[in-house]
Structure formats: C-alpha cells, structure tokens
Design goal:
The complex is a heterodimer of chains A (139) and B (449). With 139 residues, chain A is mainly beta. The N and C termini of chain A lie far apart (45 Å). Helix content of chain A is 6%, strand content 40%. In chain A, helix 1 (17-24) links the parallel strand 1 and strand 2. The radius of gyration of chain A is 14 Å and the shape is globular. Chain A has one helix at 17-24, and strands at 11-14, 37-40, 44-45, 57-62, 66-70, 77-80, 86-91, 98-101, 103-106, 109-110, 116-119, 122-126, 129-131, 134-135. Chain B has 4 helices and 43 strands. In chain B, strands 11-12-15-18-22-26-30-33 form an 8-stranded parallel beta sheet, covered by helices on one side. In chain B, strands 14-17-21-25-29-32 form a 6-stranded parallel beta sheet, with no helix packed on it. Chain B has a 5-stranded parallel beta sheet with strand order 13-16-19-23-27, with no helix packed on it. Chain B folds into 3 domains: 15-91, no CATH class; 97-312; 353-438, no CATH class. The chains are: A mainly beta (139), B mainly beta (449). Chain A binds chain B through residues 73-75, 90, 102, 105, 108, 111-139, and chain B through 2, 10-11, 13, 15-43, 45-48, 50, 52, 54, 62-63, 92-93, 95-96. Strand 11 (116-119) of chain A pairs parallel with strand 1 of chain B, so a sheet runs across the interface.
Chain lengths: 139, 449
C-alpha cells in the first residue's frame, strides 16, 4: 500500500525487498521524493530473487535525504546481507540528512562497512541494530 | 568534482574496517540508542565502527523527542579512527520509556485532563509511550495530583503505565480519599496498565479505576486491594467501566478486600452493560499462559465475560511470604522480614500498610488499646485463618477481647469465607470500637466537655 500518512511529507510503505529497492536505491523505478519516508513493515528483506543494487550491495542511496525506518521501533525490520553483500551504501545526502531508524542490519559483508558505508552526507542512525556484519578486507 | 572521479578512485581506501559502519568522504553520522553485536573486521580495525574521514558521534541518549532519556548501555564498542561521544553500544528498546519515581513526576507524565479545578501535568508522554514507575508508594500527600477526587486523569492517552518490575510493588495509594486513576478515553489506541497496585482507592464509584469514553484498556498483573465505592446506588470498588465502546481486558490480576457500599460490584461494575469487560484465564508474556492459578471469585455487576476470578501467573506463596521474582516454584517464596509489614497470600511484595497476624498475641498487640505495637491509623491488618481466643493470648481487662481506641483502617480476614474466628468463649465481646469522648468534644470546638 502506498499513500500519505503524514501531512508534511509522504510516507511510502515498503513490504518487500522489491518495493524497498525501487523506493530508495539509485536505480529504483519509483524513487521516493527527497524528504519523504520509506516505512518498512516488520519482515526480513534479502536479495534472493528480488531486486538489489548489485552482487556486492543491497541498497545504494544516491544523494537521497529523508527517512528509511521500520514501522515500529522494535528493529524488527531486518535487512539481511546474507554474508555476501553490504546492506547499504549512502552516497551523500544532498545537503540534508538521511535518517535510518529501527532497522536491523544483519549479515552484511563488504570490504569496509559491511552494514553501512557512509560516503559523505549527514546520517542519523537511531535505535538500529548491527549484528554479525563483517568488513572482509584485511588491509 | 567528486562526481567526475572514476568510481574506483572515489572509494579508494588506504585501509579497511568497520564491520557495521564505515564513515568516509567527510560524512557526518550521529548514532542514537543503537546496538552493535557480533560484528567483525578482518583487518582488525574497528569491528563495529571505522572512521576514515568526517565525523561520527555515538550518543548515550535517545534521539528527539526522547532526547532526555538515557539509552540502556550495553557492550563496549570496537572502533577505529576518531569516534566521538560514548564508547558503548546501546539498546534502543527503552527509548520511549519515561522513568518516574515520585508522585509529582508521575502526575507530570500521565495526567493531562484539563477540566476546571484539575491540575495538568507539564511533560505528558506521547501516545504509545511507556511511563515506567520505580517500586514504591505514590500518594497525593507526597506530591501533585490531578484533583481532590482523582489522583491521575489521563485524557485520550495511549501507551503503557507499568511498574519497573512485575511484582506489583508500585503502589498507587488513594489514602482512602481519592480514586487512583480516571481513564478518560484512549484515542482509539490501547492503554496498558501493568503490575500496578491500586491500594486504598476510594470514590463514589471506581475507587481504583474509572474507565470511560470508549477507552481501550488492558489490565495486566495488576493488584486492587482495599478499594472502596461509597455511593449506595452504584458500585465497582476496584474498577468501574462505562460508555459504549469502552473495552477492558484483564490478565493475571488480583482483587482483594475491595468493597462497594451498594453491595454491587465490589470488584468490577459494568454500568448498564455499556462496556465490554473480559477476565482472561491466561497469563501475559513472558509467563506461561497455561500455568495459572485461580483464586477467589470476583464480585461483579453487569456483564463480565470470561471467568471472573483473581488469577496468579506464578507460584502462590502462603501468607507472610512473597514471591519477588514471580517464580514458578515454591523456592521462589521469600519470608517477609519480622520487622516488616508482611503480606497476604499470593503477594509479590511485603506491602506497606498490611500487617499479617496469626495468633491472639499478635492480634491484640496490633489493634488493642493497650497493645504493645499498634498499627498506625489507616493501615490494614489481615488475620490468618484461625480461631482467636483470650485463653490463647492477651486480651483487655474489661469485657472485650480487644478495644480499638480511635483506630481507623481495616481489620480483615485473609479469606472471604469468614474463617477468622473471634471466639469470645461465652464471656466477652469480640471487639469494642471506642472513640474518646474528649476528642469528639474538642472537634466541636467546645470547652465545656
């Protein structure tokens, strides 16, 4: 379901990896407008047969600002890198902040920043959980 | 320009790390109430956080609008590079939990009804939040309350009011003069009351709680004791519910010693059957839903669904003992210290103002005019099921077993079956309730007594 939940901005409901990818990742086909929120349902999100950025990253946000959050503060929205992908790479935030709230970054893996790599921009990480994430490059 | 650089160069690192987070390219990151666990970096540089350039700050507080709440500290972080702020991981699970430990603090956080003559709290929690009470007694004599008739009046407030533990040792003490809680709607969401102890609440109806205006309320592991409804045409000494749409679900809660002047609904009163009230015979999480002990049948008026009984979700300890951990074996029971005021059967704490006596000697000393350790006015004495006789212990010298002189409070039996027998042995009255005449006259202001 998609629709406005708040007056000041639009909150887009994401219930599957495909919807989440298309709402927030750079190549998504229905990106949310900057300043909006992507609200995840409590579930486990994996690439599997779903859309992801590539074989090394689940999500790549590109100068995106706004909010990506779980529908409740329980961190029950699990972004699982399956020990093969970085969960999220934030490439700038367009001069305004990106908030990550109540997300569980799990089994993320990359050379550096298995859970999240912040490459510039302003990011608030709020009541999130990072578990069993790995930076695999030994240099 | 950064965007014109080849991708490989843009992400060039001299070294790598940060199993969970890597901050680079002058990024700015603030971390609030977040947990890091089991993360690794093959380089050994920052299993949790790696800062290449830019800034990252780990805060020990929750974020706005909960910036005044300290997050729950966890394990130490493993970081590399400059990481500002705290060096610890935090749990965000309590970032909407407002801690209160005084009557004024509790009122300020939950009582927002603004009718004439009502005092409104100044820092009301947000809908969906939790007010967590420290163990102890909350009474209007100790701080601010909403009104002379009501201790607390939440208006369209949802979320949870709960004791810091499940032992119901957060006592909302009406001091025989006020209702504990008047719930005036919950804005369509649920308000949960957990492990609170409504004690000595008194009002025309609903001495413990009055639930109104379509409120959705869950009552979980709550104790109602010694509450009173004084209006002879109403009832509901512990809980009074009214208004269509009002829905109340009760789990694992106990009712003892409550009384309605009307005789109707000493425990629960559903006015005109307007509300839906259900007593569940299951335990709430984390207790075993099937491991429940049924206690006494409740006094109810109006439709109450389910089996209206007191329920225990843990081992029921005998009188004089309590179960502080809500354990499920008899070894969980601890004896109340001899110097303490002890507990009634099934208690989770040695409640203040509730003395337990088991023999004539203790009974005499606690209540009688010449007793050696009389209870204070307003307190409660609970007799164990037994026969009390002067031949077994001290009594007054006149024709009474005991004489209560200007004593107020409550003397009750541990069981409602009148199993506490005052045996006059065909020679004495049981109790002489005596009021000193000189004080009666003095309260009239006369000097001619």
């Amino acid at each position: 379901m998609e629709g406005a939940l708040y007056c000041a901005y639009v909150a887009w409901q994401a219930t599957t990896m495909d919807i989440l990818y298309n709402k927030v990742s750079k190549e998504g086909n229905s990106l949310m407008t900057n300043g909006d929120a992507a609200v995840l349902s409590e579930a486990t999100y994996t690439c599997g047969s779903s859309s992801c950025h590539d074989s090394t990253k689940m999500i790549w946000t590109y100068n995106l600002f706004g909010t990506i959050e779980c529908t409740v503060d329980s961190a029950g929205c699990i972004l699982d890198g399956e020990s093969t992908r970085q969960v999220m790479q934030v490439y700038g935030t367009g001069g305004t902040g990106l908030t990550l709230r109540a997300l569980r970054f799990q089994n993320g893996q990359a050379g550096s920043g298995g859970g999240v790599l912040v490459w510039g921009g302003e990011v608030d990480v709020i009541v999130c959980v990072f578990t069993i994430c790995k930076a695999s490059d030994s240099r | 320009m950064l965007r014109s650089q080849p991708l490989a160069r843009r992400f060039a690192h001299l070294s790598f790390g940060g199993g969970a987070i890597d901050v680079d390219n002058i990024g700015s990151v603030n971390v609030y109430g977040s947990l890091f666990s089991g993360n690794t970096a093959a380089s050994g540089n920052g299993n949790d956080i790696y800062r290449t350039s830019g800034t990252i700050t780990v805060h020990d507080t929750c974020s706005s609008p909960y910036s005044t709440i300290l997050a729950t500290q966890g394990n130490a972080l493993n970081t590399y590079g400059t990481v500002s702020g705290s060096a610890y991981s935090y749990s965000g699970s309590t970032c909407d939990h407002w801690l209160v430990d005084t009557m004024t603090g509790l009122h300020g956080k939950v009582s927002n009804y603004a009718g004439d003559g009502y005092s409104t709290g100044g820092a009301i929690m947000f809908n969906g939040d939790t007010a967590v009470l420290s163990a102890g007694s909350y009474a209007c004599s100790e701080g601010t309350c909403a009104h002379t008739d009501n201790m607390l009046v939440p208006n369209d407030l949802s979320g949870s009011f709960e004791c810091t533990n499940d032992s119901a040792d957060c006592v909302i003490d009406g001091q025989s003069s006020r209702r504990g809680l008047y719930i005036y709607g919950t804005s369509g969401q649920t308000l949960t009351l957990r492990a609170l102890n409504f004690f000595d609440g008194q009002a025309a109806q609903g001495g413990g709680i009055y639930i109104d205006r379509g409120a959705l309320v869950e009552i979980v592991l709550v104790v109602f004791s010694n509450c009173k409804a004084t209006y002879s045409a109403s009832g509901g000494a512990a809980v009074y519910v009214t208004y269509y749409g009002t829905t109340v679900n009760v789990y694992g809660s106990r009712f003892a010693g409550n009384a309605a002047a009307s005789g109707n609904g000493g425990d629960i009163f559903n006015y005109n059957n307007e509300a839906t009230v259900t007593i569940h015979s299951t335990c709430p999480s984390p207790y075993n839903t099937n491991d429940i002990t049924t206690g006494e049948t409740l006094s109810t008026q109006g439709t109450v669904y389910g089996n209206p009984n007191t329920y225990y979700c843990y081992t029921v300890c005998p009188a004089g003992y309590y179960n502080p951990t809500l354990g499920d074996t008899i070894s969980s029971c601890s004896v109340c210290a001899a110097s303490d005021k002890s507990s009634a059967i099934g208690s989770t704490a040695c409640l203040v103002k509730n003395w337990q006596v088991t023999n004539m000697n203790e009974f005499f000393n606690k209540v009688s005019e010449t007793g050696g350790s009389k209870m204070a006015n307003g307190e409660t004495i609970t007799l164990a099921a037994n026969t009390y006789r002067c031949s077994d212990g001290p009594c007054e010298a006149d024709h009474s077993m005991v004489v209560t002189a200007d004593l107020s409070g409550s003397i009750s039996c541990i069981e409602k079956s009148a199993a506490c027998i005052l045996g006059g042995e065909s020679s004495r009255r049981g109790i002489y309730v005596k009021v000193r005449i000189d004080e009666c006259w003095s309260t009239r202001g006369g000097e001619d007594g």
